[in-house]
Amino acid sequence: MLFAAETWPFTVATFLLLLIAIVEGVAMVVGSSLSQSLQHLLPDPGDMHAGLFDKLLGWLSFGRVPVLVLLVVFLASFALTGFALNLVVRQLFGFWVPPLIAVIAAFLITLPVVRFAGAGLARVIPQDQTYAVSFDSLVGRVATVVNGTARVGYPAQAKVPNEHGQILYVMVEPEAEGMTFQSGERVLLTKQLAGNRFAGAVNPWPDLI
Fold first, then answer.
1. Which stretches make up the Inner membrane protein YqiJ N-terminal domain (predicted)?
2. Domain limits at 49?
3. pLDDT tens across 41-90, in order?
């Protein structure tokens, strides 16, 4: 059933779960985090307006539970629901469910599963572990470039602690032409450019942690 042509969406979801586990394991080894990177791709919960997509994110507990956890729950539920549906129909009627119908049914079943799982996890995960902080609160903090060389218009990845002491990953570039930031260099974040992208200057307090 895993490799049947009709169940390919659920096979893809299963392999995505495995890929996430591998990437997160590698990221932990190199001192990064897939969860934080995904969090940066989505809007800050405090900046969301009352749009339909934003309401859906709130309903799914986005901002109260790390986005990677919600993604894993979604993929696992989607894959299991799709395989279970096909297994039952195959056993009873002797044919696979058409992929489009199976995907729609699995998706509609998965959404409330993610909703209830997220609500439950939000009660046991400390609030300061959700990384739901505003990026502009990082201005004035000192970040450390972790890889690449940053130039104006070509940011490099850097890590910076937030007010909870958690390490977040941002993109930083020099605020002035002619400046560069090398890997390992400590940089003062002076301005938020867009999302998790910041302008920075040479740290005037090199001993500041």
1. 7-115
2. 5-129
3. 555 444 444 456 556 666 776 667 777 888 899 999 999 999 999 999 99
pTM over 0.85: no
Q: What is the dihedral of CA 180, 191, 170, 125, to 10 degrees?
A: 160
**Residues 20 and 40 placed together within one structural domain of the fold:** yes
CB contact at 8 A, 161 and 149: no
Q: What is the DSSP letter of 42?
A: S
Residue appearing with tokens 């902080």: 133
SS3 at position 195 = coil
- Split into its structural domains, the chain has a count of 2
Rounded Cα distance between 170 and 159, Å, is 6
46 contact partners, CB below 8 Å, separation of at least 6: 132, 134
Same domain, 58 and 125: yes
Terminal Cα-to-Cα distance of the chain (whole angstroms): 54
CA pair distance 52, 40, nearest whole angstrom:
20
Give the model confidence (pLDDT) of 27-50 as tens digits: 665 545 555 555 555 554 444 444
d(CA 155, CA 174): 8
Give the whole-angstrom CA distance, residue 64 versus residue 158: 24
Domain match, 100 and 19 both: yes
Backbone region of residue 87 per phi and psi (left: phi > 0; alpha: psi in -120 to 50; beta: other values): alpha
The C-alpha atoms of residue 53 and residue 61 are separated, in whole angstroms, by 13
Please give the Cα distance from 191 to 199 (Å, whole number): 5
> Residue 207 domain-assigned?
no
